[in-house]
Amino acid sequence: MNQEKIISVQNLSKQFGHFTAVNNISFDVYKGEIFGFLGANGAGKTTAIKMLIGISKPTSGESLVAGFDVKHNAEMVKKNIGYMSQKFSMYDDLTIKENITFFGGIYGLSRNKIKEKTAQLVSELGLENEINKLVGALPLGWKQKLSFSVALLHEPKIVFLDEPTGGVDPITRRQFWEMIYAQADKGTTIFVTTHYMDEAEYCDRVSIMVEGKIEALDTPKNLKQQYNVTSMNEVFLQLARNIE
C-alpha cells in the first residue's frame, strides 16, 4: 500500500446541541486506498463525510484532505475531490448529456474537455443510445453508475461515496464495485461509507463506527482474526455487543 497520507483526521467532533453525532475520531487514509467507513444507519458516517468534504463545520478537531486544511481551505478541498451523495444527486429532468455538461461546467472543465469526457463516459457505460434520454427514466442501478462516473469527471484525487449501493440489486452492487476497483487501480483514493458489512470485504482497510466513535480500524482480514470470526458482519455484531 502507498504510504502517502491523502486524508488525515485528528480528534474530529460534531455536536448538534447536546447530541454528539461524531465523537473525537482520528484516522489516516492513504493514496490509492479503498477505505471503508462502516457502521449502522445513524452511526455518524454521513456527518463525518460532510465535514471532510467541507460542507459542514466541525465542532472541534482538524482534518487535512488532499493536502488542504478543510477548515481554512474548503474550496481547494472541493476542487480535488469527487462526491456521490447518499441520495441520487443528478437532475432527473435533464438528459444524460445535459447532466454531464452541467456538472463538467461546475467542475470547471473546458467545452472541449466536457465533450471528450462525455464521449468517454457514455462509451464506458454503454449508454451511447441513451445519451439523450432523461436521467429520471433510467433504472436506479444505472443512475448510481452514472453518478459515480460524473463524480470522477474532473479526475479528482479522492472520491467520497456515501452509501453508493443502497437499494440496488446484488448484480448491480457487484458491477459498481468493479468500477470502484478500476478507479483505485488508476491511483484514485476511494472513501466509501456503507452499512452492508459484506462490502467491507472489498476494502483495503475499514473503520467501524458505533454511536459516533470509531471502535475498530484495520484490514478486514486482521479484524476477523482479532475477533476470531469468519465475516465482517460478525465483527460488527461483537463490537455492538461490547458497547451495550
Task: List strands and helices in order, with pairings.
Layout: E1 5-16, E2 19-30, E3 34-39, H1 45-52, E4 60-65, E5 68-69, H2 74-79, E6 81-84, H3 96-106, H4 111-125, H5 140-151, E7 158-162, H6 170-185, E8 189-194, E9 205-210, E10 213-218, H7 220-226, H8 232-243
Parallel strand pairs: 3-8, 3-9, 6-7, 7-8
Antiparallel strand pairs: 1-2, 1-4, 4-5, 9-10
Keywords: ATP-binding, Nucleotide-binding
Domain ABC transporter: 7-236
Protein name: ABC transporter
Tally the beta strands: 10
Which stretches are low in confidence, meaning pLDDT under 50 for 5 or more residues running? none
H/E series: EEEHEEHEHHHEHEEEHH
Spatial sequence of strands, sheet with the most strands: 6-7-8-3-9-10
Rounded mean pLDDT is 91
Largest sheet: 6 strands, mixed
What would the principal axes of the Cα set say about the shape? globular
Class derived from helix and strand content: alpha/beta
Instruction: State which percent range the strand residues make up.
Output: 25-35%
Overall radius of gyration:
18 Å
Q: Which quaternary structure do these chains form?
A: single chain
**Helix percentage range:** 25-40%
What's the total helix number?
8
Calculate the terminal CA-CA distance, rounded to whole Å.
35 Å
